[in-house]
Amino acid sequence: MTAFDDLMAFQRETSALGQIAGRLGWDQETVMPRGAAAQRSEEMAAIEGVLHARRSDPRVGEWLAAAEPPDEAGAAQLREIRRAFERAQKVPGALAAQIARTTSRAQGLWAQARADEDVAAFLPVLEEVVALKREEGAALAAGGSVYDALVEDYEPHTTGDDIAAIFDAMRPRLVALRAAVLDRPQPAGLTGTYDEGAQMKLSRKIAKVFGYDMTRGRVDKAVHPFSSGSGADVRITTRTNPSDPFNCLYSTIHEVGHAAYEQGVDAGFALSALGQGVSMGVHESQSRIYENQLGRSRAFTGWLLGEMRAAFGDIGIADPDAFYAAVNRVHNGYIRTEADELQYNLHIMLRFDLERALMAGDLQVADLETAWNDRFATDFGYPVDKPSNGLLQDVHWSVGLFGYFPTYALGNVYAGCLHEALRKAVPDLDAQLAQGDTSAATRWLRDVVQRHGSLYLPREVIERASGQVPSEGPILNYLEAKFGALYGL
């Protein structure tokens, strides 16, 4: 056994334990009894303590110093393990365990506060989470930007300033397009009630249409849709609303994009440092292109209309063009996950600015709801009506995911680049989507993005796949063309 072999064996066990921790999180959000919350927080803290000890084990440093990579993949394995090792060494084990314990507890308190529309019940534990994440960020930053250090967990080699520059370039064109679209007559949306069981049945069918392997996954319901796991066990959740079946169906397609990435990673990378998506921005590029450029296309919605009518009977829209307009209807709303493509990035920009200010200490938790509501009214032109439509709508801050939100918009940027390349690679894409056949598109994405796992750096993945340096131009051009045509601009 060489030092490289010893390190890979140790990493495999660490990755396996990480998957177990992830399964505890999945269980907590889907089927765990409410009374188990306190015990679960201790379980999460215990396993995080074990994981942190392994990630910062001095033997890892010794193996890294002695290991000789056998090939390109081996060099990438060492790169990713070294990065995780150096970060883990900077964070005290007791702090890592306390973050896991507190965020597990905070998640349950958030869910109850959201149900009760009670911000005050959530703020004390959120204050604890923010303080802990500031402490973690400061340890990682070693005198640098706390927020940048946290972003590094989700989008390596990207800073808050990098993200702000992209957002500043996107905002003017997004705001102008939004104003022009909202000035036009709006198409009709769906009305009526849609059986939630039928929604789940159709969502599972659509998951398979987009290539989700149900022998290595499952679809459940949760308060906030998410994807969990990698390799041979990748689970997704969705949610239902009797008056809005699109919420369920497109949440499912979105999460299938995440799951397909994890299921599509080269099996040889399983339970290794390369065995999962390279960044959340690249992850979001998959979920967003599945959901939007494919799932909300005129071609695919023409097929989906037939499936909707088969599942629910008469839905009040018989014309495929009218149905396409309903799917892509630009409308006022509060919920990020239900936002149309045009306005989605504005939701992300709001969260990015608020959490960056929180981590810098320029905004305090006690003032967060007011800051959120003021910013929302400024950006969207109407007030937040209740906490579950405002500060309490997302799970992310309760579980300590600071630095995560901007990757959603980065994912849109990356998806724009990939979509341009996909259209060239599969010139008859629309004809296939019109038959409910996504296989050529999903196969191309698996080949150019998903199978590589973390072999390449995030922006390198997109550049190799799309043939261009990632930029905001393609997604803005796509949005202007799509909604310009839909609204006759």
UniProtKB/TrEMBL annotation:
InterPro entries: Peptidase_M32_Taq. It is an enzyme of class 3 (hydrolase). SUPFAM superfamilies: Metalloproteases ('zincins'), catalytic domain. Its EC number is 3.4.17.19. Keywords: Carboxypeptidase, Hydrolase, Metal-binding, Metalloprotease, Protease, Zinc. One of its GO terms (biological process) is proteolysis. Belongs to the peptidase M32 family. This is Metal-dependent carboxypeptidase. It comes from Cribrihabitans marinus.
